[in-house]
Amino acid sequence: MSEPQQMPSFHSTPADDGQQELLVAVLDAQADLTSIKRMRAWASKALGVRPGEHVLDVGSGTGSEVLAMAAAVGSSGRAVGVDPNPRMIELADTRTGEAPATFVEGSAYALPFPDDTFDAVRCERVFQHLEHPERATAEIARVLKPGGRAILIDSDWSTAIMHPIDPTIVAAMQSIADDRTPNRESGRRLRGLLSAAGFVIDDIGSEAVIFQPEVSAPMYAAQVQAAVASGVLTQAQAEQATAELEQGLATGDYLFSVTMYAVLGHLPTAV
Ligand SMILES: C[S@@+](CC[C@H](N)C(=O)[O-])C[C@H]1O[C@@H](n2cnc3c(N)ncnc32)[C@H](O)[C@@H]1O
Q1: 98-102 own/partner pairs: CB under 8 Å, 24+ apart
Q2: Which of 57, 186, 198, 203, by CA, is between 20 and 30 Å from 39?
Q3: How many angstroms does the Cα of residue 129 sit away from the middle of ligand 1?
Q4: Does the beta carbon of 108 lie inside 6 Å of ligand 1?
Q5: pTM for the full model?
Q6: Alpha helix (H) residue ranges in 63-160
Q7: C-beta 184 within 6 A of ligand 1
Q8: Ligand 1 site, residue 10, Cβ cutoff 6 A
């Protein structure tokens, strides 16, 4: 098994270069996963961005989905990414090239745009990091024009599988993720959040993200160590989890996954 890595956290703005490089490497590796590509393709078709539209990606990370939307809106439209991490904004800017895309520093809690600015908004794997997700959906509703569409995509970490590690050990390891992922069952709450913000729900999709062992095994190893450090696992349980993980990897009997949900809605048009 590979060496354990530092535990990445998207919850707050990273403080050092090593953490930032790790976050970008994780996002780039995830963008290559077949399951993420399938979910994004479904979500993009569902959102149906058209030439000339003004569109926003909240928590845009490396900016890959802003660039995809920029291609859809064309030169008569505008695609914007917003993220509170200035280093992500800087990175996304460097990847933009000639695309009609811009990146702005800001939070989902206080989107730096006037009311009624956008035709469509997407937000992927951000709500799990928000302590107050209802404030984010209110902001998304505010910046959308009447009739505007939104799609929220997020994981529900209670659906995570780390086979063949003993599920009771997995549950204990998951419990320490709370500080970094305050809204870890976000996936199941997206529909209710959009409804409460005044959206009409149009569709719901889901995809189990299947993680590749090269990406997930070192992170799980780091999680085991963090669980021991925080006292939720004994050293003996950690050794058991590590042995089970190594055995699974050696025999090919492993499955690392989490279910993501995507909810599409639109605001009523003004009367
Ligand atoms: C797991 S990454 C997902 C990035 C991108 N949406 C994707 O799917 O590749 C989570 C992103 O949410 C951003 N984020 C964290 N807190 C946020 C907030 N309050 N408002 C907006 N974005 C936030 C992080 O900086 C990070 O870029």
Answers
A1: 99/67, 99/70, 99/71, 100/70, 100/73, 100/74, 100/75, 101/63, 101/66, 101/67, 101/69, 101/70, 102/78
A2: 198
A3: 8
A4: yes
A5: 0.91
A6: 64-73, 86-94, 133-143
A7: no
A8: yes
Domains and CATH numbers, the chain: 17-266 (3.40.50.150)
Whether 124 is in the pocket of ligand 1, judged by its Cβ within 6 Å, is yes
CB of residue 266 inside a 6 A radius of ligand 1: no
Q: Residue 83 C-alpha to ligand 1 middle, in angstroms?
A: 6
CA-CA distance, 136 to 131, in Å (whole number)? 10
Contact status, residue 59 vs residue 89, Cβ threshold 8 Å: no
Residue 27 CA, closest ligand 1 atom number = 9
Cα of 103 from ligand 1 centre, angstroms: 13
User: What would the two tokens of residue 111 be?
Assistant: 């989107």
Per-residue pLDDT of the chain (271 residues; tens, 9 = 90+): 444 445 556 665 555 666 888 889 889 989 999 999 999 999 999 999 999 999 999 999 999 999 999 999 999 999 999 999 999 999 999 999 888 899 999 999 999 999 999 999 999 999 999 999 999 999 999 999 999 999 999 999 989 899 999 998 988 888 776 666 889 999 999 999 999 999 999 999 999 999 888 777 777 888 888 889 989 999 999 999 999 999 999 999 999 999 999 999 999 997 6
